[in-house]
Design brief:
Elements lengths: L3 H10 L18 H18 L7 H4 L1 H13 L13 E3 L8 E12 L5 E10 L4 E3 L1 H12 L2 E2 L1 H16 L4 E9 H4 L10 E6 L6 H12 L9
Parallel strand pairs: 2-5
Antiparallel strand pairs: 1-4, 2-3, 3-6, 6-7
Helix pairs in contact: 2-4, 5-6
Length: 226
């Protein structure tokens, strides 16, 4: 068991232990409804410990709303049942240049504080035998974002999944995001944001990687989250 100082160090430095999201073996033994009921009970206790009056009309439904949000919305990406079906198609056109999907919304949460991570992802690949529907890339990004996350892990999970589905290493993923656990607590830096980049195959070549970076630089990020 870590002491309080070690807990703060891990949280402030956003350490990640694995590319896999840490899950218990029994993570999916309970139904969503059971999880919502249990989280509702425990969140009610948290609110009561904070001194809030849950008999107030405005607060009385909050434990249920939070529980449902966690299970059905914010963290739906924890369950493999919710993983989007990544349909691929034969590359009949023989297209062999870079394809870029830009400014995909990231709406996630830091696993160290359960506080929002908001920003954008950019994904590109060079097709070989397979191509994938554009909306499937967006859905995959959202699926991995909708869980307690570390940004470094997020880009790797997206990258590895697309490489496997497309049958090519020629994939690159960038994420630029604002961490509210940085802007709202700790250092309380309101203007900074974080960028992570992972790639393989042809994108290990500087020229090809720079082509991707030039394309995404043409679009300015709307990162004024104030």
């Amino acid at each position: 068991m870590k002491n309080k100082e070690q807990i703060e160090i891990v949280g402030d430095n956003h350490f990640s232990s694995s590319i896999r999201t840490p899950l218990r073996a029994d993570a999916f033994d309970k139904s969503d409804e059971e999880k919502i009921e249990n989280i509702q009970y425990h969140f009610k206790k948290i609110m009561e410990e904070m001194g809030l009056d849950l008999t107030d009309d405005s607060l009385s439904g909050t434990p249920y709303r939070v529980a449902k949000m966690y299970v059905k919305e914010l963290f739906y990406g924890l369950s493999p049942v919710n993983k989007p079906k990544l349909s691929t198609f034969e590359n009949k056109y023989g297209y062999n240049k870079m394809l870029v999907e830009q400014n995909i919304t990231i709406d996630s949460a830091c696993e160290h504080h359960f506080w929002p991570i908001i920003g954008y992802a950019n994904v590109a690949y060079v097709p070989k035998d397979k191509v994938i529907g554009l909306s499937k890339i967006n859905r995959l990004v959202d699926y991995y974002a909708r869980r307690p996350q570390v940004q470094e892990r997020l880009v790797l999970q997206i990258l590895n999944d697309l490489q496997n589905v497309l049958g090519t290493k020629d994939v690159i993923v960038s994420v630029t995001a604002k961490h509210l656990c940085v802007s709202s607590r700790g250092i309380k830096d309101q203007s900074s944001f974080t960028t992570t980049l992972e790639y393989g195959g042809c994108f290990t070549e500087v020229e090809k990687r720079n082509d991707f970076l030039k394309i995404i630089a043409q679009e300015k990020y709307n990162l004024a989250f104030t």
